[in-house]
Amino acid sequence: MLDELSRGIVERLDPASASFLNSSGLAKASPMGMGLYRIEPLGKVGSVRTATVQLDVRPKDRLGLSRMLFLLSYTGEQGFRPDTVSAVEDRELWSALAESLAQLAERALGRGVLQGYLTVDESLRTVKGRIRISDQISRRPGMLVPLEVSYDEFTEDIAENRILRAALERMGQVPRVRPEVLSRLRQLKGKLDGVTRLPAGAPLPRWTATRMNIRYHAVLRLAELILRNASAEAGKGPQQTASFVVDMAQVFEDFVGAALREAMAAYPGELRLRYGALLSEAVHEADRLSVRPDAVHLLGGRPVVVYNAKYKAATDQGASLTADHYQMLAHCTALAVPTAWLVYAGSGEMKLRRILNTDIDVVEFPLDLSRPPAEILDTIRELARQSWGELIRQHSAG
Fold first, then answer.
1. Which of 164, 208, 216, 292 has the most CB atoms at less than 10 Å from its CB?
2. pLDDT in tens, the chain (398 residues)
3. Between β-strands 241-246 and 230-233, what pairing exists: parallel, antiparallel or unpaired?
4. Residue 377 burial by Cβ neighbours in a 10 Å radius (0-12, 13-18, 19+)
């Protein structure tokens, strides 16, 4: 097991496992001779498993699986609750994911397979539903039958069940899942055998959380996380492989943006994510410099506050902390904003730094991801309150 910021380890690997590890994007395996490889993390977290090898790369500060799942799912605005996942912090990822999916699927399917209405387009010799006039004219000009029709069918073959079936199949292909859990996953998938199988690489169908599918909400949130971040191939013997790899820097940026936008909705104006602005003028557009802060709050269409989220602060990477402040200074200069909020993953105290010879302040705002999810969201709301308060203070002083 490695930390995402560690310098690596030396392990004995077979060539096939080393090749799969390199292709996963989780770590780099460099041959050293005598069957030994130096394994170095590539800045992402997750787990790679083959029939003979398992490598886990944990987030910095040893954040557990439930916290990682919370951050991952919140960006989808699904309101994921980590207490629905049976992920004990010291358990390995695959066991926790498989057991959690099995438990949540059993609850969802306990009262039978969910049914719903599915719009079907068909060519029929009798009228059913409504006739698609434009298709009828373009495909069968001058012909009365067959008719191009659309109708709603009450069926199990709906988006929710397609997503659940795909997740059960993928987790069932992970090598070395405990036999009793694998048996449960297969039994659950058997209940969905009448549901259309999602092709490999196909986008996930859209579903909407409603009162009618409420018993599926928790399992669908976990299923989508598995399908978006995990891959698995069920070959023969040692060819079985699985990987679950996420970029925590991107996850943190997405989480802060989604949570901050929700928190700032309580105040006037509008928060926009990944806001682009010019930093320099140039005759040719290709020569212009631009900036794209993670989030900008606007009043009357004018930027007034800028935010950046940094999962790996410069000091994590052995670089000078001033690199992050240079970036924030550029954002403030380009947007003519007096204050920038640097939100970084970690503990500590909030610090305000006045940039010399300017009227620009950079506020370092820590977000401790080891805290319970409710407290993390409370901290984001406090960030919104303080940044709005600072804006009001500046306007009053001006």
1. 164
2. 777 777 788 889 989 889 999 999 899 999 999 999 999 998 888 889 888 888 888 887 767 777 887 888 776 544 444 444 444 444 578 888 888 899 999 999 999 999 998 776 777 566 666 667 676 667 767 666 676 767 677 799 999 999 999 999 999 988 888 899 999 999 999 999 999 999 878 899 999 989 999 999 989 988 998 998 888 765 554 557 888 888 888 889 999 999 999 999 999 999 999 888 877 766 566 667 788 899 999 999 999 999 999 987 655 555 555 788 888 899 998 899 999 999 999 888 999 988 888 889 999 999 999 888 889 999 999 999 999 998 888 777 66
3. antiparallel
4. middle
Cβ neighbour number for residue 185 with a 10 Å cutoff: 23
**389 to 264, 325, 382: CA distances (angstroms):** 12, 22, 10
> What is the DSSP code string of 319-337?
S-THHHHHHHHHHHHHHT-
* CATH class label, 249-397: alpha beta
> Crossing angle for the helix pair 65-74 and 93-109, nearest 10 degrees?
60
Contact indicator for 120, 151 with CB cutoff of 8 Å? yes
Enter the tokens of residue 61: 């500060």
CA distance 395 to 161: 53
Residue 221: per-residue pLDDT: 87
**Cβ–Cβ < 8 Å for 311, 43:** no
Measured in residues, the chain has a length of 398
Contact 251, 71 (CB under 8 A): yes
At which residue do the structure tokens 């780099």 appear? 28
SS3 content of the chain, % helix, strand, coil (to 5): 40, 25, 35
What Å distances lie between residue 262 and 76, 271, 392, CA to CA?
12, 9, 20
Beta pairing class for 270-273 and 45-50 = unpaired
Beta strands in the chain (DSSP E): 2-3, 9-12, 27-33, 36-41, 45-50, 54-58, 116-124, 130-131, 147-155, 230-233, 241-246, 270-273, 277-278, 290-291, 295-299, 302-310, 339-345, 351-354, 361-367
| Domain residue spans of the chain | 1-62, 64-115+156-245, 116-155, 249-397
Let me know: does 183 contact 189? Beta carbons within 8 Å.
Answer: no
